[in-house]
Amino acid sequence: MSTPGELTIGAVVDELRPDFDDVSISKIRYLEAEGLVSPRRTTAGYRLFSLDDVQRLRYILTAQRDRFLPLRVIREELDAIDRGTMTPHGGEGAAGAPQAPVSDGVPRAKDLAAPTTLRLTRHELGQRTGLTGAQLESLVGYGLIAPDGEYLDEDDLVVASAAASLIQFGIEPRHLRPFVSAADREVTLVGHAVSQRGPGRSPTASTPASGSASTSVIAAEVARQCLALHVALVRKALRQQS
Fold first, then answer.
1. Among residues 20, 35, 28, 64, which one has the least CA distance to residue 49?
2. What rounded mean pLDDT belongs to the chain?
3. CATH classification number, 114-174, choose in 1.10.1660.10, 3.60.130.10, 1.10.10.60, 3.20.20.140
4. Does the reported pTM lie above 0.85?
5. Are 195 and 219 in contact (CB under 8 A)?
6. How far apart are CA 216 and CA 140, in angstroms?
7. Which is nearest to 122 in space by CA: 97, 151, 101?
8. What distance in Å separates the CA atoms of residue 72 and residue 79, rounded to the nearest whole number?
C-alpha cells in the first residue's frame, strides 16, 4: 500500500519524461539493479518511489545527459551526497561546516541534540584540515577523534580543524588530551542531571511533572550550560592575564 507522496514506477516515468525523453521503466529498473536507487517494495513486490527517489533519479539522468558521466562516477557522487560531503550541485556539503554559535560562543541546545549526518573518510578529513596521516593517527590515539568504522563525523571534523590550527602554534595532539578528560567529566555531570530530572520527573520530587522535557532535550541544555560555564571561565581568565 502506498503512502502520500509515493509513486509507482509508471508514474515516475510520466513525471520524468518531459525532461528526459529516453527514460523508461526498463531504464529505471536497470538503475535500481545497479544500486543507484532503492524504492520501497510492497508486500506484493510493487515498487513505490518517494519524492527523494525521484530527485535522485533526476540527478542520475541529468549527470548522464549533461555531463556524460559513467555510472561508476555517478555512484561515487551519490555516495558523497549521502554522506554530506557534497551537495547535489557539486559543492562541498553544508554539513561540513561547524554550526554557527550564538552570541555567547556556545551552540544552541537544539544543535547539540541534533544527530550528525556528515561521514568522511580519513583521507577526506585530512584533505579538509591539512593534517597529515600521522597527525590524524595521533588524534585518534589520544581519543580526540573517534572513527565509526571507516568514517568520521562532523564533530571529528571540528576537532581536527581546531587541532590543525593549534598545531600551527606549537600545540601538539598530546597536549590536547586534557580536553578529552574534561569532556568526559562534563558528560558525567550531564548524566547525573538527567538521572535527577529524567522524563516525567520534576526537579525536586519523584512525582511526574506534566510537559517535562525529553531526556535528550534535558541533556542538551545541561551540556550547553556546561559549555557556557567553560567559555565564560576561560574568557575571564584571559582578561585577568591581559
1. 28
2. 83
3. 1.10.1660.10
4. no
5. no
6. 27
7. 151
8. 11
Is residue 207 over pLDDT 50? no
Asked if residue 108 has pLDDT above 90, the reply is no
Residues 8 and 185: their CA atoms lie apart, in Å, by: 52
Q: What is the identity of the amino acid at 139? A: L
Using the structure block, give the residue that is written with the C-alpha cell 596521516.
133
Average pLDDT (214-240) is 84
Grid cell at residue 122: 580519513
- 181 CB-contact burial (10 Å; exposed 0-12 / middle 13-18 / buried 19+): exposed
Mean pLDDT for 222-226 is 84
The x, y and z cell numbers of residue 187, run together, are 558528560
Cell of 110: 537544539
Instruction: From residue 236, give the alpha-carbon distance in Å to each of 171, 226, 233.
Output: 22, 15, 5
- Rg (C-alpha) for the chain, rounded Å, is 24
